[in-house]
């Protein structure tokens, strides 16, 4: 079988790349070893958001409904049904990709892909049968896997990665989370809302490294108020699983001071993800990798071997579905001679806790380190009419603009709908817009995005409702 393009991996990078390539007239095939949609649809973005949604409503039914005059008896958790709700969300999305592949005449080969030589992909199916496919171009979109911690063996039952934490058959009494990054906070929130005590151990002295400092501090305070306990500047050096409860040894990150034992019934290891290239045959082909196991590409996603490209979690950059998708589109367009492009300065990041935490562009810390002069405009949701009406006033919007040109350099939002609101900031930044541009754009009232407008007005110290 011969193609113009074979994409290995059908996550958001791979499946979007295949669809765009097919739209552009390339005869395209996808090789997938498990299920269409990759990490994102099957064990990542989609199931985690389904559980975040359901658990948030569960908590609201218990806490907020009565305040609004909605009388319901105390909500009862039917975890089996909630997990089925999550599974239905996965299935619906996976079916959607299958439909789009058929619509675009993309051929799917289920099995493990190995690049036997440039232009040749061997597919080994589950029954051991191998098929050799040929193609002018190959795009590697094999994604990432859970980063392991030495001495802590993930069994996906009691010591789990995000994958196990998305399918726990019972609410843990005590969930110990290692790593206060995105996964730790999102899945920690899910299980706390459903009744678990949650302790998060973080190596650094704050949560969500890399985000704006003020956002990190306020988010930590809000999550603590909800009942999550953080043990910062600490590391888990081992988990004893011989008894009925797990016994985790926690030590100060710097290694000096007393160790303590924390008992938990589930430990979630969420200390990052690593690129996944096992069995692809890259070493034999001479594909260049960096010191962190990522495939090295140039600006056009070309690897060091002609005819082989790579995108998504398996290359450098944030491990985010939308970044992978945009790279998928860009590489497909470049393959037909168009000018595909991804602007890495404007990739939003969202943490889907309640309130949500969203960010695009530079933080104050980034700009200080780069010696760039900037102005900040901030607006709290306590002063936004819609947030007040909804009684969801936690958080703020922060707009950072260049001191000389007023160009928006970064926007950071903590707020109930931050993930949707950050899109406006990304568009303004993509067009090189100024804070004044947002400030002079009419925003509907009463809406939460009015807080973005007010924060932009606050850059010039002229917010109205503050
Ligand atoms: P993947 O989605 O990892 O897909 C790679 C695919 O390649 C897989 O299907 C795999 O089976 C297949 N594959 C690998 N090797 C082979 C081979 N040799 N042969 C055949 N097939 C192969 N990102 C967000 O932007 N928003 C979120 O809300 C979000 N939530 C997340 C929640 C969790 C719990 C996790 C773990 C991740 C989350 N992410 C989120 C990150 C997101 O899932 C990844 O950034 C994204 O899936 C990367 O896409 P990709 O196409 O590079 O790879
Ligand atoms: P992460 O990189 O976001 O966070 C890992 C955290 O663990 C960091 O705070 C780090 O300092 C800490 N850590 C590392 N080693 C440690 C140790 N030994 N002891 C204690 N703490 C330690 O990684 P996470 O949360 O596992 O997520 C992986 C990837 O998945 C992220 O890169 C993220 O981009 C993606 N993702 C995105 C989501 C979203 O967009 N909403 C949701 C979930 C995941």
Written overview of the protein:
Pfam families: Pyr_redox_2 (PF07992), Pyr_redox_dim (PF02852). One of its GO terms (cellular component) is transferase complex. One of its GO terms (biological process) is 2-oxoglutarate metabolic process. Keywords: Disulfide bond, FAD, Flavoprotein, NAD, Nucleotide-binding, Oxidoreductase, Redox-active center. Residues 347-456 form the Pyridine nucleotide-disulphide oxidoreductase dimerisation domain. By secondary structure, the chain is an alpha/beta fold. It has three domains: 2-146 and 274-335, FAD/NAD(P)-binding domain; 159-271, FAD/NAD(P)-binding domain (3-Layer(bba) Sandwich), CATH 3.50.50; 349-459, 2-Layer Sandwich (Enolase-like, domain 1). It starts with a strand and ends in a 7-residue tail after the last helix. The longest helix has 25 residues, at 79-103. The mean pLDDT is 97. Helix content is 32%, strand content 25%. The protein has 14 helices and 22 strands. Helix 3 (45-63) runs antiparallel to helix 4 (79-103) and helix 3 runs parallel beside helix 6 (182-193). Strands 1, 2, 3, 4, 5, 6 and 17 form a seven-stranded mixed beta sheet that branches. A five-stranded parallel beta sheet has the order 8-15-9-10-11. A five-stranded antiparallel beta sheet has the order 18-19-22-21-20, sandwiched between helices. The site of flavin-adenine dinucleotide has 36 residues, from helix 1, strand 2, helix 2, helix 3 and strand 4.
């Amino acid at each position: 079988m011969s193609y113009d393009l074979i994409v290995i991996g059908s996550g958001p990078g791979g499946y979007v790349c295949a669809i765009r390539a097919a739209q552009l007239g390339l005869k395209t095939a996808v090789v997938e070893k498990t299920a269409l949609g990759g990490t994102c649809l099957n064990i990542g973005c989609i199931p985690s958001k389904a559980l975040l949604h359901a658990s948030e409503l569960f908590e609201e039914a218990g806490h907020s409904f009565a305040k609004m005059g909605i009388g319901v008896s105390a909500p009862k958790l039917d975890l089996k049904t909630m997990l089925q709700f999550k599974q239905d969300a996965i299935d619906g999305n996976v079916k959607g990709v299958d439909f789009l592949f058929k619509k675009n005449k993309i051929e799917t080969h289920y099995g493990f892909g190995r690049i036997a030589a440039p232009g040749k992909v061997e597919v080994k199916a589950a029954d051991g049968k191998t098929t050799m496919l040929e193609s002018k171009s190959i795009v590697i979109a094999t994604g990432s896997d859970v980063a392991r911690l030495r001495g802590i063996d993930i069994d996906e039952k009691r010591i789990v990665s995000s994958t196990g934490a998305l399918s726990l058959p019972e609410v843990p009494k005590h969930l110990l989370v290692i790593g206060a990054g995105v996964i730790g906070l999102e899945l920690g929130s899910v299980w706390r809302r459903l009744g678990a005590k949650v302790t998060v151990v973080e190596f650094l002295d704050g949560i969500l490294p890399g985000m704006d400092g003020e956002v990190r501090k306020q988010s930590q305070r809000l999550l603590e108020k909800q009942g999550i306990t953080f043990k910062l500047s600490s590391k888990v050096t081992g988990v004893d699983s011989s008894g009925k409860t797990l016994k985790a040894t926690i030590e100060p990150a710097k290694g000096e001071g007393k160790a303590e034992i924390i008992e938990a019934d589930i430990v979630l290891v969420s200390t990052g993800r690593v690129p996944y290239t096992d069995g692809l045959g890259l070493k034999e082909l001479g594909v260049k990798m960096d010191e962190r196991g990522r495939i090295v590409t140039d600006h056009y996603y070309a690897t060091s071997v002609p005819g082989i490209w790579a995108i998504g979690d398996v290359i450098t950059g944030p491990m985010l579905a939308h970044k992978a998708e945009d790279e998928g589109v860009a590489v497909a367009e470049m393959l037909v001679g168009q000018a595909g492009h991804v602007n890495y300065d404007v990739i939003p990041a969202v943490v889907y806790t309640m309130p949500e935490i969203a960010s695009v562009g530079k933080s104050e810390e980034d700009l200080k380190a780069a010696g760039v002069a900037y102005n900040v405009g901030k607006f709290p949701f306590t002063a936004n009419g819609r947030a007040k009406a909804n009684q969801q006033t936690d958080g703020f919007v922060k707009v950072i603009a260049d001191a000389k040109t007023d160009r928006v350099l970064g926007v950071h939002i903590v707020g109930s709908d931050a993930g949707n609101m950050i899109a406006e900031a990304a568009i303004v930044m993509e067009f090189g817009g100024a804070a004044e541009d947002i400030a002079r754009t009419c925003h509907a009232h009463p809406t939460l995005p009015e807080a973005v407008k007010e924060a932009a007005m606050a850059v010039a110290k002229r917010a109205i409702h503050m």
